[in-house]
Amino acid sequence: MIRILHTADWHLDLSNLEFTVPAIEAGIEAAGEYDLFVHAGDLAVNRSNIHPHVAYEVRRLIELGTEKARYGGVVIAGNHDQSFQEERKGMVEGILASEGHINLELFSRPEITSFPSDDQIRERVGLVMVPTPNKYWWKARLENNEDPAAMLQTMIQGLIAEAKDKPGVNRVGVVFHGTVGGAMLSDEMQMPSGVDVQLPPQTFASADFVLAGHIHHHQRMDRGVGTCPPVFYPGAPAPLTWNDKLMKPALFVHDVSVSGPNTTDSIPLVYSSRDYMVCGA
Known about the structure:
single chain, 281 residues, 6-stranded mixed sheet, 14 strands
């Protein structure tokens, strides 16, 4: 078994550090022991020029999350982390690489990685890392009259199949920053069709679980859609819209077993006050 701490969508910004950082710190501490720290994208609000105070807190929280993990951590680029994928890509890597080493891998393009699921390292859990597509790649596909969403879906399915074929891999998960069709924006409101690029749940049918980011509402999606695996969105600690203020974000702790059912617990992120400003407001 491997225990994974799963978070996403921190959107750290000068306007929210005061309440967001203590809540994330407390959540990480409450998670206890785990093997792998996973951040599914959107570390900060700004895409390029992060304020030094924000950069410091991004690094400190990532360090806190990874130092407790036996295998360190992984982070994928979200839509607010696009500078991962552009010419000025050194921004986030520079933040995380400064002042000492963090046991962390950054993923700016789809790749496969894996981690031991037992102390004998005989069996492994594979992870297909799917960050937000580079906007220039997306634009180029459209200009060539191609369907980038369909291409991304095919790419993900191919990577899942490749991961399942790797020696020793018994379970395969996907770490994904984007929208899965059917995701809820709140307890009452589903993501409307035509809004955002939505991949159908069947995209991930061959995987065992999906650790996602991008949707700000904390949720587990598994409504019995065919053989599709559960999709987990931890939610956004920092509100980017006034509607986000009504949400109840949390961290997920996933126990992934190679021989039995997986289990998941939620750790609520508790604030001293909900009367805070929206990011950038």
